[in-house]
Write a structure and sequence with these properties.
alpha/beta; Purple Acid Phosphatase, chain A, domain 2; Double Stranded RNA Binding Domain; 6-stranded mixed beta sheet; globular; nuclease; DNA replication; hydrolase; endonuclease; Metallo-depent_PP-like
């Protein structure tokens, strides 16, 4: 049996107010085609189905459409919740999706391991693999902290409970069969994983990364949460599949892929995902940027999205008008234009302008004092009073 491992779909995500629906729809279609071309019999989604705990209706619709597509292809689908996912949202359709060979696990099954250890069977009905479907393990579901515990004690307690739960699931799978591969899942940060702008820390304040040595010897470990595809602890069968599309501009140059694990050879391979929409960050002075944009190749399908950073203190309004004229009639959109902090020229007076987006309230007040040429001793008193007002405004009522 071939099992496809993917993660971090983040359905419903947007960039600067622009929906990723078209990209996600193309990915789901590509996934279905890949199931057919590669002879995939099971897909494992290792967390973060949705981008938020309250996904828009179109994101839920796409998720359910994917379930239907995979069911038509007679492909089993295992979904575990990630830290972005709402347990209640995934649970609301869980029983219905089970009728379509889609099995959703949202919480640890402490009392009944059979609820989260799933059997994957070949077309002839023989057992091909066992999956310990382990979702993102929220601290509140794992431990009960006591008053006065230190941060180090809480970290140790949580790590031990995660280790205990993984071992419980693994041991139960072994009791079913020791002859077939045992696959684990997880949505967490393992020691050595690289994070990007769009990856939010989990277990904040208690446990930021788990040591691979705490987990049992799974034949394959399907991980989610890190958006870059990579192995863990030098083990090519313990992997982050990465997100299917770049979630932020800093992921634009990171290759996107899924992993395919073969239960017969017990070997995993990566399969590249096409780029559905190019994201590109450009930096430089205004004339240089205009030239770079003019020379860009236009994609055939979805428009390229551009993130522009200007290394000059200029008035962005007229420059944005030039950018709009340059992109008119071309298959590209500018989603963000900003200046580097250094280029804002807040205090030297040499720049064309500085906007409130570039500076905080205290810096605005400091600049006002300079412009009004307030004498130093009085300026210090005024700054202290202003700081007090700002602090009072920032305090919750």
């Amino acid at each position: 049996m071939k099992i496809l491992h993917t993660s971090d779909w983040h359905l419903g995500q947007s960039v600067m107010g622009k929906s990723r629906l078209d990209e996600h729809r193309l990915f789901i279609n590509w996934l279905s085609a890949t199931v057919v071309e590669q002879g995939i019999e099971a897909v494992v989604l290792a967390g973060d189905v949705f981008d938020t705990s309250t996904p828009p209706s179109y994101a839920r619709e796409l998720y359910h459409d994917c379930v239907v597509q995979l069911n038509k292809l007679d492909c089993q689908f295992i979904v575990v919740a990630g830290n972005h996912d709402s347990v209640s949202v995934l649970n609301e359709s869980k029983n219905l999706l089970a009728k379509l060979k889609a099995y959703v696990v949202t919480q640890p099954a402490w009392d009944n391991a059979s609820d989260a250890v799933l059997e994957l069977k070949n077309q002839d009905g023989t057992l091909a693999a066992l999956v310990c479907a382990i979702p993102f393990l929220r601290a509140r579901d794992m431990v009960r902290y006591e008053m006065g515990q230190s941060g180090a004690d809480k970290q140790l307690q949580l790590a031990e409970q995660i280790k205990r739960y993984y071992q419980q699931q693994f041991d139960y799978a072994k009791s079913i069969s020791a002859d077939v591969p045992i696959i684990g899942t997880g949505h967490l940060t393992m020691v050595g994983g690289e994070k990007t702008e769009s990856v939010r820390d989990i277990y904040v304040g208690s446990l930021e990364a788990l040591s691979p040595s705490l987990l049992p010897e799974f034949d394959y470990l399907a991980l989610g949460h890190i958006h870059k595809p990579m192995p863990v602890a030098g083990n090519s069968n313990w992997r982050y599949s990465g997100s299917p599309i770049p979630m932020s501009f800093d992921e634009a140059n990171s290759p996107k892929s899924v992993c395919i694990y073969d239960t017969a050879t017990r070997v995993a391979e990566r399969l590249a995902i096409p780029v559905f929409r190019p994201l590109k960050s450009l930096k430089g002075e205004r004339n240089e940027l205009l030239k770079q944009i003019e020379q860009l190749d236009e994609p055939q399908d979805l428009a390229i999205w551009l993130d522009i950073t200007v290394n000059e203190d200029i008035n962005l309004g007229p420059f944005q008008e030039k950018l709009a004229q340059l992109c008119e009639g071309r298959n590209m959109e500018i989603v963000k234009v900003q200046r580097t902090r250094k280029a804002a020229g807040l205090f030297d007076g040499d720049g064309e302008t500085a906007t409130l987006e570039d500076i905080n309230p205290t810096e605005v007040f400091d600049r006002l004092l300079l412009e009004k040429e307030i004498e130093p001793s009085r300026a210090n008193v005024l700054k202290q009073l202003f700081t007090k007002i700002v602090n009072e405004q920032e305090q919750p009522s």
